[in-house]
UniProtKB/TrEMBL annotation:
PROSITE patterns, per the entry: MFS
Stored CDD domains: MFS_FsR
UniProt keyword terms in alphabetical order: Membrane, Transmembrane, Transmembrane helix
A molecular-function term among this protein's GO annotations: transmembrane transporter activity
Transmembrane regions: 53-77, 121-139, 160-181, 187-210, 231-253, 273-291, 303-321, 327-347, 359-382, 388-407
Coiled coil: none
Name used for this protein in its record: MFS transporter, FSR family, fosmidomycin resistance protein
CC terms in the record's Gene Ontology section: plasma membrane
Residues of the Major facilitator superfamily (MFS) profile domain: 34-413
Length: 414
């Protein structure tokens, strides 16, 4: 058998697209200490950003904001994160920067302190931008570290990393209800102590990364060649971005305006509405835990199909439900829809081996951008119509999950 035939046979028999340099690498156990630390840091990072969402009712009343201006806050945060993340990923693929992570968390700390004393919309937007910059530095390198510490269980590692973020997002409204609502906007500054804890965790992770993996360009840790032609890879990445658009545009409408929807339609107080937001976000965290390991076992494509398209019936029913069923449906939506991102991200990383940072930055950045754009557009839409009408309109977005049929077919399990 000649060399090209041997290479072709090896590609066809590979169980996963992401090749590893040594046969024993996939048998290695995950580095649970590092995965746990990076997951906890993700929880801190996303808890900080969720405080912005939880503060919306207070900021709207205190600063006399419109729904469009509320959406602009999310847009500012999401755009600063989304525009910088692909650049950060590309740079760190070429030259790892292990100690960039603590600096990103310090940017988040500055944003929190600004948010606690913001007297106007302009300062709130500046604070949101600082938190967005922190996230843009954090996510690409953290995703790479999760993959390096995975021991070959890439879906599991990404889920463990992601669940930290989802738990942080879920905890934010609870802390806001317990601390910020009774004590006011200035109490946000106390959460700076949590950000300092995140800096300490990330210093430990950065030391491990510098010792074990940062001595050579990051891309050399992965096989350089994709098993698909360039045209097929570009088409598949485009389909995955459509699915990200569907997920995050819908999630932006649901999470940014959910408390207002409950207060307007069912007469709930701010604190009760934030509790319901917690139920939704906690369900999202549980779904994230399930998505990665299930994708490792049955493949990424089935998880992508189920998580995006499977949520459509619940989304279509939601605008017509009473309070009990609204809570039940949003829990199901969070549980099912949140399982998508880990599967989509690992699928994309396996399409483009050796470019983990670039892929992570692109997908995290695009997700953040779509979330911010969705919040701004839907906020303007809500001002001109109603939040109920917005919920009826976005209910059709999960049907874009049908685009998953265009993902490439192959013998490799993705």
């Amino acid at each position: 058998m000649n060399t090209s035939a041997k290479a072709s046979a090896a590609s066809a028999s590979a169980p996963d697209i992401a090749a590893v340099p040594a046969a024993g690498a996939q048998k290695a156990k995950p580095t649970f200490g590092i995965l746990g630390a990076i997951s906890c840091a993700h929880m801190v990072n996303d808890m900080m950003q969720s405080l912005i969402l939880a503060l919306y009712p207070i900021l709207k009343t205190g600063l006399s904001l419109s729904f469009a201006q509320v959406g602009l806050i999310t847009l500012t945060y999401q755009l600063t994160a989304s525009l910088l993340q692909p650049m950060v990923g590309l740079i760190t693929d070429r030259r790892p920067r292990p100690y960039s992570l603590p600096f990103g968390m310090l940017s988040t700390l500055v944003g929190l302190l600004l948010l606690s004393m913001a007297p106007s919309l302009g300062i709130v937007l500046l604070a949101a931008a600082c938190i967005g910059i922190g996230s843009s530095i954090f996510h690409p390198e953290s995703s790479r570290i999760a993959r390096l510490a995975s021991g070959g269980q890439h879906g599991f590692a990404q889920s463990m990393f992601q669940v930290g973020g989802n738990l942080g997002t879920a905890i934010g409204p609870l802390l806001a209800a317990a601390v910020i609502v009774p004590h006011g906007q200035r109490s946000v500054a106390w959460f700076g102590l949590v950000a300092l804890l995140g800096v300490g965790l990330l210093l430990q992770v950065s030391r491990w990364y510098a010792r074990h993996h940062a001595g050579q360009p990051a891309g050399r840790k992965q096989a350089a060649a994709s098993p698909y032609p360039r045209k097929v890879v570009i088409g598949a990445i485009a389909v995955l971005l459509v699915l990200i658009f569907s997920k995050y545009f819908y999630m932006a409408g649901l999470s940014s305006f959910y408390t207002f929807y409950l207060m307007e339609h069912f007469g709930l107080s701010v604190q009760n509405a934030q509790m319901h937001l917690f139920y939704f976000l906690f369900a999202s965290a549980v779904g994230t835990v399930l998505g990665g390991p299930v994708g490792d076992r049955i493949g990424r494509k089935p998880v992508i199909w189920i998580s995006i398209l499977g949520v459509a019936p619940f989304a279509l029913l939601l605008p017509h439900a009473n309070l009990f069923w609204t809570t039940a449906l949003t829990i199901m939506i969070g549980l099912v829809l949140s399982s998508a991102f880990s599967a989509i991200l690992v699928y994309a990383q396996e399409l483009m081996p050796g470019k983990v940072g670039t892929v992570s930055g692109l997908f995290f950045g695009f997700a953040f951008g779509m979330g911010g754009l969705g919040a701004a557009v839907l906020g303007l839409f809500a001002d001109r119509t109603s939040i109920g009408f917005v919920y009826q309109t976005i209910a059709y977005l999960p049907l874009l999950g049908l685009a998953a049929v265009l993902l490439p077919k192959g013998r490799q399990r993705m």
